[in-house]
């Protein structure tokens, strides 16, 4: 059990170097970060700043070079049943139906642990509850290739939730979906977050998405990847949010603060300022020439 004051996840002095074809690449440097129990934390930042690498290390899918990751105070040395990842590309088994996909990993795990009949019955109950939660009841016997991207991602999330993971690690889960489907998925994931009481670490490029969903947004800066800033998000509780919120001045102000940080960390801000100076110079030169 995790006392409320203890972080669910603690990242301490984490560094990551990749070695490819005799060359070293410094991907992450001295990352210190804590994720609280039942917190929704979003990671944003320029492409290549190391968001996915950090998430994969927390998931135990990638090794670290320096520092440590603790979950409930215990060091992470690989994947664990307490942490489940959801990726952008759904990774469903095409030969299994929706309900079979949702149950598959849990069945494998149960088999490995020599589960009892009571375990099997509770797994069936759980899979039906998740079908209902994710709005998948009507397609439970369909195969993934008959489903839209949004429905496939619902199946992938239901499958991830089957084992009641304490930590859900989501790597741009809605990145391949159209704008309308993303909005539906945002409200759905807030429902899941509220009902399942998980801790979520969510990687995204979309600052709107990060501000709408997260309790805190971490901006990572590149070369090598490090924490630039951490932003507390002040919005109504998850189930009281609706899409119109994204147009409210307070929401836009929080989004702008984060976007400005990302621009600063990537040099885009410098480029924009240089463009502005050049435009002003060209305009001044043109008006001087007209005056001649
Ligand atoms: N297995 C690997 N071997 C070598 N370099 C890698 C490997 N995985 C990632 N990298 C490099 O590490 C850096 C961080 O990659 P990562 O995918 O974590 O960034 P990201 O912020 O998630 O990017 P994006 O937003 O584009 O998905 C990149 O420069 C990438 O090329």
Structure description:
- This is Urea carboxylase-related ABC transporter, ATPase protein.
- Keywords: ATP-binding, Nucleotide-binding, Transport.
- One of its GO terms (molecular function) is ATP hydrolysis activity.
- Belongs to the ABC transporter superfamily.
- It is built from 8 helices and 10 strands.
- It is an alpha/beta fold.
- The chain has a domain of 201 residues: 3-Layer(aba) Sandwich (Rossmann fold).
- The strands form 2 sheets. The protein has a 6-stranded mixed beta sheet with strand order 6-7-8-3-9-10, with helices on both faces. A 4-stranded antiparallel beta sheet has the order 2-1-4-5, with helices on one face.
- Strand 4 and strand 5 form a beta hairpin.
- Helix 3 packs antiparallel against helix 4.
- The chain is globular and about 90 Å long.
- The site of adenosine-5'-triphosphate has 13 residues, from strand 1, strand 2 and helix 1.
Q: What attributes does this structure have?
A:
292 residues; Rossmann fold; globular; alpha/beta; binds adenosine-5'-triphosphate; single chain; 23% strand; 8 helices
What is the arithmetic mean of pLDDT?
Answer: 89
Radius of gyration: 22 Å
What's the CATH topology name of the domain at 9-82 and 165-291?
Answer: Rossmann fold
Strand content: 15-25%
| Helix segment tally | 8
Characterize the overall form.
globular
Bound molecules: adenosine-5'-triphosphate
Looking at the overall shape, the CATH architecture of the domain at 9-82 and 165-291 is: 3-Layer(aba) Sandwich
Given helix and strand content, the structural type is alpha/beta
Strand order of the largest sheet: 6-7-8-3-9-10
Q: How can the largest sheet be summarized?
A: 6 strands, mixed
User: CATH first level of the domain at 9-82 and 165-291: which class?
Assistant: Alpha Beta
By DSSP, the count of extended strands is 10
Order of SSEs, N→C? EEEHEEEHHHEHEHEEHH
How far apart, in Å, are the first and last alpha carbons? 79 Å
Q: Roughly what percent helix?
A: 40-55%
CATH superfamily of the domain at 9-82 and 165-291: P-loop containing nucleotide triphosphate hydrolases
Spans of at least 5 consecutive residues with low confidence? none
Family: Belongs to the ABC transporter superfamily.
GO molecular function, one term: ATP hydrolysis activity
Keywords: ATP-binding, Nucleotide-binding, Transport
Protein name: Urea carboxylase-related ABC transporter, ATPase protein
């Amino acid at each position: 059990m995790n006392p409320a004051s203890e972080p669910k996840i603690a990242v301490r002095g984490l560094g990551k170097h990749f070695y490819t074809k005799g060359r070293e690449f410094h991907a992450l440097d001295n990352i210190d970060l804590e994720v609280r129990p039942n917190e929704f934390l979003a990671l944003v930042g320029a492409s290549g700043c190391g968001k996915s690498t950090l998430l994969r290390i927390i998931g135990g899918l990638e090794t670290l070079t320096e520092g440590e990751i603790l979950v409930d105070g215990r060091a992470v040395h690989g994947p664990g049943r307490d942490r489940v990842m959801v990726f952008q590309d759904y990774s469903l088994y095409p030969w299994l139906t929706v309900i079979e996909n949702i149950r598959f990993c849990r069945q494998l795990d149960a088999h490995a642990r020599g589960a009892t009949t009571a375990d099997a019955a509770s797994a069936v109950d759980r899979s039906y509850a998740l079908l209902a939660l994710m709005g998948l009841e009507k397609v439970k016997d369909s195969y993934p290739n008959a489903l839209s991207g949004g429905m496939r991602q619902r199946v992938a999330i239901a499958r991830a939730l089957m084992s009641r993971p304490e930590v859900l690690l989501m790597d741009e889960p809605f990145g391949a979906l159209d704008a309308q489907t993303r909005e539906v998925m945002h409200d759905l994931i807030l429902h899941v977050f509220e009902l399942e009481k998980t801790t979520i670490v969510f990687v995204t490029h979309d600052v709107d998405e990060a501000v709408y969903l997260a309790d805190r947004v971490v901006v990572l800066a590149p070369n090598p990847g490090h924490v630039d800033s951490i932003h507390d998000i002040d919005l109504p509780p998850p189930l009281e949010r609706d899409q119109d919120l994204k147009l409210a001045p307070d929401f836009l102000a929080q989004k702008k603060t984060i976007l400005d940080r990302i621009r600063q960390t990537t040099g885009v801000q410098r480029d924009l300022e240089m463009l502005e100076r050049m435009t002003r110079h060209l305009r001044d030169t043109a008006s001087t020439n007209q005056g001649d």
